[in-house]
Every structure is written in C-alpha cells, then in structure tokens.
Amino acid sequence: MKTPYLLYSDGKGNIFEDLTLYATGRSGWDAMPVPGEDWIPLPNGGSLYELPGRRGIGIDVETGQMRLCDKGWAVAAFIPPAHTGFYLAAYETAPDAPTLPLFCYTAAGWQNDQFWVPATRIEPDIRQDCSGYDDKKIKVGAQSLLESYPHNRLVKHLMENCCQTYNCPAARNFSLGRWECPIPVSPACNANCIGCISLQPDEEPIVSTQDRLQFKPTPEEIVEFAVPHLATAPFPIISFGQGCEGEPLLMWETIRDSILEIRKHTTKGSININTNGSKPDAVRALCKAGLNSIRVSTNSARKNIYTAYYRPNNYQFEDIVESLKIVSAFGGWTSINYFVFPGMTDSIEEVEALRKLIRDTNLKMIQWRNFNIDPDWYLGKINVTETGDAIGIKNMQQLLQAEFPTLQFGYFNPPIERIKGDFQLDFAH
After folding, report:
1. How many domains does the chain have?
2. Average pLDDT for residues 331-353, to the nearest whole number?
3. C-alpha–C-alpha distance, residues 171 and 163, integer Å
4. What does the angle CA 110 – CA 116 – CA 117 come to, to the nearest 5 degrees?
5. In which domain, by residue range, is 33 found?
6. Distances from the Cα of 290 to the Cαs of 234, 237, 267, 293, 360, in angstroms?
7. Which pLDDT does position 212 carry in this prediction?
8. Do 293 and 144 have their domain in common?
9. Are residues 38 and 136 in the same domain?
10. Checking phi first, is residue 28 left (phi over 0); if not, alpha (psi -120 to 50) or beta?
11. Would you state the pLDDT for residue 95?
12. For 98, which DSSP code?
C-alpha cells in the first residue's frame, strides 16, 4: 500500500493527519521509511497516544526529505495482544519532555479513512481479543466467584483488583470460566527490572501500572479454585507468575505442593509458570511435581543486555538458560516471553545470540511481546548509545522460521491440547 500520512496531536486529545508528511518508523535510535507491505489497519482494541514533548519525524511528500512535524505532538499506537509491531514511533524528544508511561509505542499513520500500524498478527488465538469480553458477563462471573469462594484471598485479589480494577485479560477470562487462569503467588522478587509493572522506586519518573500482591497464598487457596477451572474450562491452563506479583519461583514450595494436590483431583489441562527462570533447582522440583510448561521472560538473549535491564539479585543469565534446559529435558513446553524492541531485538548481534539460545535449550516457542517502555528512557537506562546494524523484525522472524521449522511463534501460553495435538488448530478460535 501507499505509505500513510503522519499523525499529530493538538495536546487536547484530538489527533490529525499531516498531509505534507508521510509516516516513518523507528529502529533503535533511527527514523526510517516503513515498507508499504508492513502496514496493516490498526487492529480492534488498539488505541492512539499523544507523546508530549515530542515532535514526529516524517518524510516530506514533495522533497522526500525527513523533517519534523511542528503542528503538534507526536502520536504512537498501542497494538492489542496477539500483535507484534515492526517499528516504533519516530520522533525527536525535547530536553524537558516527560518520561512516557509503561506502554508500547508503535508507529502509526492515516490513509484511506483509517489508521495504520506496521505490525503483524503473530497469534491466531482469540483469548484476549477485546470483542470477546462482555462487561456485564464479567461482572456477573466475578461476583459468582467471590460468592463461591468467600474466604479465598486469592480469588478476592483476582476479581476485585485484577479483573474489575485493572481489567487484566487473564483475570477477566477466569471470571468467564475459560482458557488461562492466572495464579499470582509471590509478593517478593529477586530482580529489579527497569520496566517493572508492579513496583517502581519512588525516585523513578514512572509509576507501576498496577499494585503488587500483598500476601502469600496457601496451597489450599490455590487448589480450591484451580481444580474446578482445569476440570471445566475450555482449553484450560493455570499459570503461576503474573504481572501483579514478583517472582513466583521464590514461592516454589507453595507451587509444588499446589501442583501435587491439584493432580490428585484432575489430570485435565496444563500447568504453566511465567518466570524469570532464576532458580533452576526449583524448576526441576516443579517438573517432578507435574509442571507442563514454562515461559521465561527476557529482553535479550545477550547476557550484558539482560543483566542491565533485569538487575538480578543472586542469580545470573546462565540460570535462565539452565531452567529452559531442565524443562525441555523433562519433556515440557518451553517458551521465552521476548520483549521486542525494533533495532535492538533484530540487531545482528542479538539474532546470533538468540539462535544460540534456541539451539542450546531446544526452545519450543517464542512469544513476541511488544516492549512496554519509553524507548529513549530504556536505552539510556541500559547505557546503549549504538544499537548496531539491524535486519528488521519481519525479516528476523522469517529467517528463524526457515532455520528452526519446528519453533513456534505466538503470544500466549498454549493449552495442553495445542502442545500435544494440532498446534495450528487446537486453541480458542
């Protein structure tokens, strides 16, 4: 398609197109043209943000030269779950510009009476599509769970905080009795992630997007609602490790005891953990108890980039590699929750490191997640002034698929039916 026009905001919540400028995208520190075939209509559930203190960078429709849009603030898109962006919004940041909150900032433009973004739908699973949520049904479902488990602190947390305050998609699905049920377990963490969404130091210019769990659930509280969910939900999964907590492996004994008790009551469904993978011995114990899958979060397959962002306490990058190897050795499903930052993720050095990680761990899946962070702030925090040559996110994905034909791409933890059955068919759709 023809390149869409650049968008700008007037600072009052109104967004306009600038017909003198074509939209560009950002890779690393640089603005560049976006190939026409990379643009797709802004998916349902997406939204647009103004970026205060930032001027969009476009390509002059007459001269073909890059220049700033001086009509208003730059604009970026939030693209909904199951989609992965190829380029960030391109802009120039003023010295006094505020740090952006913890959302993704994909490039966006206007053409043919609609908004466009450079992105792809990486995952056909519909479990977090906004069209699948009925607020009235969610409210009824949440109230029913609260009444069914009146003394369960975890159900109360999930329904009152996660589901009805923060609109957590996983908690909303739990209220509707379907698919993946979240189980936060740990108020503590052994990393100090720069972009942590549940706890930010007072001195930082950003705030966490949600409050962290304040108590330690018991195995009894977990088993009480996990068993019925696994027994009755379509494509059922329970996942330890959520955005509203610290690191679940710090509570591995609770998780182990929960898994052992759950499997006394039902063999249905999949038991997953979302983790930083910092405690391989704990992962081994969970595999012995019956853990089916693991998703390890990382911003990079390179130790130096990982360490600069996660700032780990009492563990190192090699531990997360070992955790993946352990689950694979037990025959479990292994994924990485891969934070995509165009220009960093697709740099030649990163691609080589990722290829090694895939080979070394026999990785089963990459979940391509848009990195929810202010790009300038992030690169400054990890002290990256040069991101190196990049091959493009789209090209990177194509190369990996060619080299590793059994490696799956997606956005969500797959249910056991999908893991053991037809990966292209056995999921919510």
Report:
1. 2
2. 98
3. 5
4. 135
5. 5-121
6. 20, 13, 10, 9, 23
7. 80
8. yes
9. no
10. left
11. 95
12. P
